């Protein structure tokens, strides 16, 4: 009988980290491909920010600290089995503060990889990247081997991270796998400093009777994935036997291509015309430019072969958000 | 009248660094595109190793130190105008010693970029990368936007470096340009720890009556460039106005595709059948695998548009080597 699994989630008090932690605490065991299911012994959440809505569970340990603090990382990765590396400074924030982005997105990952390398047994590592690694001129359809040409520091740092995870894995220092994530919508909580934050705002805020600003035109297509699919992908990526991934550990994920107009129509269909009226259209040329530089049409055959799935339609995504967040729609009252 | 140019060459006591320094000392001025020709005021060569064959010139300053020594770099880059960053731990060495490769190839570049970023005026930077950024499955012909899939730590570090130079340039911290170099042949001096070192050895050693080992089959194609073309490319890349390069600062260079058999035939044509007999054929599966993982058929239209040229044929390359190194051929005696 193997000992219970030890888990580290960086960026652990972010919304994906918390969902992952709750899921792992709720399940009695975790099954890694080719292994017998194992108990979860300990889950450490490392983040720069605390959270007040985490379960009170003796297996859960929340640590506030910096992701490039090697001494702290060394302590937190002692005999760790599974690491989800979600800590990141998002796109607009990394653009506004170059030093901060480099410190967290590049040097934080390097520090983590180095302490993991020093472990006696290579830990499994899931690294969160995104389609923001693109940004330069794009082919009409982005495929698995399209060249990343980032034109943001965030995208650059993520593209570099993908390569580092590949090389550390190739050398057997970690057993890494990188998920290149579509824009996540509907993201719960407050707007953040990602250039894509409006993609969630225009659904999330009207659903609770608040105004939201849309800085792009209705025709703008976006490539999205729901929080539920992200959670599935995080768990599935960790479960996969590293041998199946081969030389490239980067998995561009399947997503759903929708226009903003389609999102708004689905919002109306779920929450009525009043919700739609809460969206204010204020064009922002810079945001429009950045969003247009991201892929909207993507084919991801490799992920499909590995068993990853996209969302079916935007209306289901919105209904799932309503359910997950326990939102009471005006029409329901 | 602008003040004389200040130049830093890292890896400056390597053979390209030395040629570059000699060239700059020999020319009274250097013309950067769109600027009046300027005098060379000072050339600093930074390297971990000394050289005993450098010209005695008051403009030349040779400094022995480490490329990740930020304090030293800060001193050497004060008011620097032009930087050729050639310092590198080559492929097999970076594979044998991961820490050394990361320290020099990644952290050395990061340290250099950071001190250059702190300068009041963005310096022009030429960064030497190579086709070793490839290594995974390749299309039949590698083109400018083929996805790098390094399967060596050296290739990974170089591919990361290309992206860092892009992002630091995009932000205006440096005015960078990256040359993705073919295998250099005929490289003068001694064999080094590059997996490709034999490509030079099989010509260089027999030309002076010494034995050389060829670890790959005669049919193996290689993609090469001569030291003369590299020197031209280093100077031309520096002269180009950064605005012409646009978003991607990476310039994959044109080269010459030849098989080892063609190289050996050209050697015989230049130096007679006795030279050919000095090559010993000892197959090395690992070297064969690595060399086969590098592109041999390459199209580089972007570099051609920017005015970079490939060598015409292998025999001319060998004759140029004989001339540059002042070799007396047996047949001439």
Automatic annotation (TrEMBL), chains A, B:
Gene3D superfamilies per record: NAD(P)-binding Rossmann-like Domain, UDP-galactose 4-epimerase, domain 1
NADP in keyword set: yes
Example GO molecular function: oxidoreductase activity
Pfam families per the UniProt record, alphabetical: Epimerase
Top-level taxonomic group: Bacteria
UniProt keyword terms in alphabetical order: Carbohydrate metabolism, NADP
Ranges for domain NAD-dependent epimerase/dehydratase: 7-210
Protein name as annotated: NAD-dependent epimerase
Source lineage: Bacteria, Pseudomonadati, Pseudomonadota, Gammaproteobacteria, Oceanospirillales
């Amino acid at each position: 009988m193997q000992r219970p699994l030890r888990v580290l989630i960086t960026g652990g008090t972010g919304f994906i980290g918390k969902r992952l932690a709750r899921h792992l605490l709720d399940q009695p065991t975790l099954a890694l491909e080719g292994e017998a299911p194992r108990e979860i012994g300990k889950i450490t959440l490392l983040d720069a920010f605390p959270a007040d809505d985490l379960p009170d569970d003796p297996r859960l340990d929340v640590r506030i600290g910096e992701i490039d603090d090697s001494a702290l990382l060394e302590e937190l990765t002692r005999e760790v089995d599974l690491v989800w590396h979600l800590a990141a400074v998002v796109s607009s924030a990394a653009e506004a503060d170059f030093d901060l982005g480099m410190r967290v997105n590049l040097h934080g990952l390097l520090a983590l990889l180095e302490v993991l390398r020093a472990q006696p047994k290579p830990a499994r590592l899931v690294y969160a990247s995104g389609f923001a690694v693109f940004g330069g001129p794009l082919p009409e359809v982005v495929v698995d081997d399209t060249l990343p040409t980032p034109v943001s520091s965030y995208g650059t740092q993520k593209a570099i991270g993908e390569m580092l995870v590949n090389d550390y894995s190739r050398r057997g220092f970690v057993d890494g796998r990188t998920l290149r994530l579509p824009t996540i919508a509907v993201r719960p909580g407050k707007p953040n400093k990602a250039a894509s934050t409006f993609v969630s705002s225009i659904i999330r805020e009207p659903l609770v009777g608040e105004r939201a600003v849309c800085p792009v035109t209705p025709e703008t297509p976006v490539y999205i994935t729901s929080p539920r699919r992200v959670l599935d992908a995080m768990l599935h990526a960790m479960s996969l036997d590293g041998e199946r991934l081969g030389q490239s550990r980067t998995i561009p994920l399947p997503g759903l291509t929708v226009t903003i107009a389609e999102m708004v129509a689905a919002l109306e269909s779920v929450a009525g015309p009043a919700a739609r009226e809460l969206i204010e259209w204020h064009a922002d040329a810079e945001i429009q430019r950045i969003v247009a530089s991201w892929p909207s049409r993507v084919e991801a055959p490799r992920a499909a072969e590995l068993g990853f799935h996209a969302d079916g339609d935007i209306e289901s995504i919105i209904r799932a958000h309503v359910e997950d967040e326990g939102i009471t729609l005006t029409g329901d009252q």
